[in-house]
Design goal:
This protein is α/β, with parallel strands linked by helices. The chain is built from 6 helices and 6 strands. The longest helix is centred in the middle third of the chain and has 18 residues. It is globular, with a radius of gyration of 16 Å. The model has no long low-confidence stretch (mean pLDDT 95). The chain binds flavin mononucleotide. Flavin mononucleotide binds next to helix 1, strand 3 and strand 5.
Length: 167
């Protein structure tokens, strides 16, 4: 059976970390996966399934990811089993910010039609200033690291089933 591809962009390492967890998880359940930075991918033809991940910066996906999706939309359309977006304030912040991030997600979804799309909580390196907590609507006691392994495992179960049913 062909391998799956987990392709990601990451600025500070957490999306990469989640991509590695996803790759290991899929392998454990019988689907071998290459975990690669999207810049290093030249051809997606040899993969049985594609999973893509990128973080949110400034309420939208990082520009590198948007560019990658726009440039490869024809090759990717309908072939992406899962899209995962990584964001820090998506789940805990004000609704208005979630709405802005959802617009970015919808734009990507429209371009490549992933079978499944999710948002994972990410991690920041240091506490935000009080005014930013207020602006974003998050408590000053919110942990810096919100990466939830149980949620990632659960998503991998769904994606694993999707991949197996398509093969
Ligand atoms: C410059 C910058 C801008 C960010 N903007 C947002 C944002 O608009 N919304 C959000 O939920 N998280 C935001 N974050 C948090 C990141 O999405 C989060 O830290 C994520 O885990 C980063 O992924 P990475 O480590 O793969 O780069 C921002 C982080 C940075 C460094």
């Amino acid at each position: 059976m062909k391998k799956a591809l987990v392709g990601y962009f990451s600025k500070t390492g957490s999306t990469k970390e989640i991509a590695v967890i996803i790759g290991a998880n899929l392998a454990k359940k019988g689907t071998e996966a290459d975990v690669l930075e999207l810049e290093k991918i030249t051809n997606t033809d040899n993969y049985s399934a594609i999973i893509l991940g990128a973080p949110i910066n400034g309420m939208r996906h990082i520009p590198e990811f948007i560019k990658f999706v726009e440039e490869n939309r024809n090759a990717l359309d309908g072939k992406v089993a899962g899209l995962f977006t990584v964001a820090y304030i998506y789940h805990d912040g004000r609704k208005i910010w979630r709405g802005m991030m959802n617009k970015s997600i919808a734009k990507i979804q429209k371009l490549i039609n992933p079978a499944n799309s999710t948002v994972f909580a990410g991690r920041i390196d240091k506490k935000m200033p009080a005014f930013a907590n207020l602006l974003f609507g998050i408590g000053s006691d919110l942990p810096l690291d919100l990466i939830n392994h149980a949620e990632i495992d659960k998503w991998c179960e769904e994606i694993g089933k999707l991949i197996k049913s398509a093969n």
